[in-house]
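Review this fold:
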Amino acid sequence: MYNNSNLHLILGGARSGKSRLAQQRAEQWLQSNNAGGLSYLATATAGDEEMSSRIARHQGDRGQHWQTIEEPIALAEALDASPKSHCVLVDCLTLWLSNCIHEGVWAREREALMQRVDQRRNNSENNAAPWIFVSNEVGSGIVPLGQLSREFVDAAGWLHQALAERADSVTLAIAGLPLTVK
């Protein structure tokens, strides 16, 4: 069920139902608000045929009332540019993290996102449409052997902690079921 919080973080493992849950919450916000719109901020890039199929499936799952914004790197800038009256669903933070690490801009882009989130909260944008962040919870498995994999898991963990601290609500999706964490 949708609540009136401004910043949501939805975590879960692969195929946990986190994207579907986020989409449902955004659509509930739109129904209860009777104003505004919905923006889907996609961080994925179609590097191969399998990923292209995943992206197409996700696009097909959303109705025509969704505006899609594709931004694999400059997430803070894309959030700033999104319509203020739209609930923005960011899917997914771990793909964004991977893109940023690959491009060597992780520290800069993480700082930009945290500054934008803090600015939004500090400026009391309480009437602003919510932002919903979706991310893969990768810290529940074994510690990876390779340096890059460990850096990724560490960065994802620190990102999730920073956003969870700032979020009005945090949900863990498990087997398609939401577990309220905060």
The CA atoms of residues 76 and 115 lie 8 Å apart. Helices lie at 18-33, 49-61, 75-81, 93-103, 106-122, 147-166. The mean pLDDT is 90. The first helix runs from residue 18 to 33.
